[in-house]
Amino acid sequence: MAEKKQIYKCDICGNMVEVIDGGDGDLVCCGQNMALFEEKTEDQGKEKHVPVVEAVAEGIKVTVGSNPHPMEEDHFIQWIEAIDGEDTCRHYLKPGQDPQTLFKNLSPDVQVREFCNVHGLWKA
Ligand SMILES: [Fe+2]
Known about the structure:
Layout: E1 7-9, E2 16-18, E3 28-29, E4 32-33, E5 35-36, E6 51-56, E7 59-64, E8 77-84, E9 87-92, E10 100-104, E11 111-116, E12 120-123
Antiparallel strand pairs: 1-2, 1-5, 3-4, 6-7, 7-10, 8-9, 8-11, 11-12
Fe (ii) ion binds next to loops.
């Protein structure tokens, strides 16, 4: 059973999907069930992933994480998103960019998640 805003990936082809509305069925790709990304919340080891949310004049600034996460070709933050009730605003990043973004007109009480291409899904 899939739930709204869950993120799934196909371990064979790499397709990644977000659930817009949940249903009773399993999500299947390449002939097998897709893998659910659990939202991780506690950093372990030296690389930090938990998003740090800071109120700024324009809205909120989100940085991944308490020590900036690497943004290398083979290991980087693919996107950062802010979930404000039903609405999701997602900013995509590329290697070489800073692991941070600005969401205008949002307050720090929104839910914030980010996705590392190696270490998966994290939330503040
Ligand atoms: Fe990572």
